[in-house]
Write a structure and sequence with these properties.
Blueprint (H helix, E strand, L loop, with lengths): L4 H9 L5 E2 L1 H10 L8 E8 L11 E5 L10 E4 L5 H7 L3 E3 L1 H8 L7 E4 L4 H4 L3 H4 L17 H10 L1 E5 L5 E8 L4 H17 L10 E8 L5 E3 L6
Parallel strand pairs: 1-10, 4-5, 4-6
Antiparallel strand pairs: 2-8, 2-9, 3-7, 9-10
Helix pairs in contact: 3-7
Length: about 230
């Protein structure tokens, strides 16, 4: 990354060779989020896992207790008996075959798609559209369910999906730079606990190899794992 004047100034405040404790690291990243918009605060885990093996993979959702600081648009594909529940819970789009048809025509301006089990045969037709965007409903992620109201409320209140890339890296967000340190710390604690609990049966040796914090247009700092024990 070519360093701009802004990044060079940020770099003066960070020690690339130091491992920071969590509170110090969060404060540094928050204080140095100087872009002209409310940057996201990102967390990267380097895990000692190879996702090509089923027993070394992770994919689930984590509820952020302090939310994510952004409006989440939710689509619900369900039969008519669930439409009122979904709408009352705050779903932005609710429908059955009509919504499936709209998505086929290119309507994908939502962040999360929820479906009832009886609609999955129809939803399966949307795999090539929703799949590449990470929007395909999945029972493991709580987005294929009969309780659409609960699923919508959880989505609206802030959820993140945790999953590995091909290199065993997990990347997600814990909020915005405008969040207080207490809120960022609360969300981080929920995420860290979930990652530890999700340790796969096939994990060997040291599970978490590295942990880094950054902002959308900032630099990163490494967090000392020993400070989290």
């Amino acid at each position: 990354m070519k360093k701009t004047k802004r990044l060079k100034k940020i770099a003066e405040n960070l020690d690339a060779n130091k491992q920071y404790d969590l509170n110090e690291g969060l404060k540094l990243i928050k204080d140095n989020s100087t872009a002209k918009f409310d940057e996201s605060i990102d967390v990267v885990f380097k895990l000692n896992l190879d996702p090509k093996y089923q027993d070394q993979n992770i994919r689930e959702v984590v509820q952020m207790p302090e939310g994510l600081g952004k409006k989440i648009k939710v689509a619900v594909i369900a039969n008519s008996t669930k439409h009122e529940d979904a709408s009352k819970a705050g779903a932005d789009y609710v429908g059955a075959d009509d919504l499936v048809d709209e998505i086929k025509k290119g309507k994908t301006d939502f962040d999360i798609c929820i479906a009832t089990p009886d609609m999955m045969a129809k939803v399966g037709q949307l795999g090539k559209i929703l799949g590449p965007k990470g929007l395909m409903p999945n029972p493991k992620l709580g987005t294929v369910t009969q309780d659409v109201a609960k699923a919508v409320k959880n989505a609206k209140n802030g959820q993140v999906e945790i999953k590995l890339d091909k290199a065993g890296i997990m990347h997600t967000v814990i909020g915005k730079a405008s969040f207080s340190l207490e809120k960022l710390g609360s969300n981080f604690s929920a995420l860290y606990s979930a990652v530890k609990s999700a340790k796969p049966s096939g994990a060997k040796g040291s599970y978490i190899k590295g942990l880094y914090l950054s902002s959308t247009q900032g630099l990163s700092v490494e967090i000392s794992l020993s400070s989290l024990v």
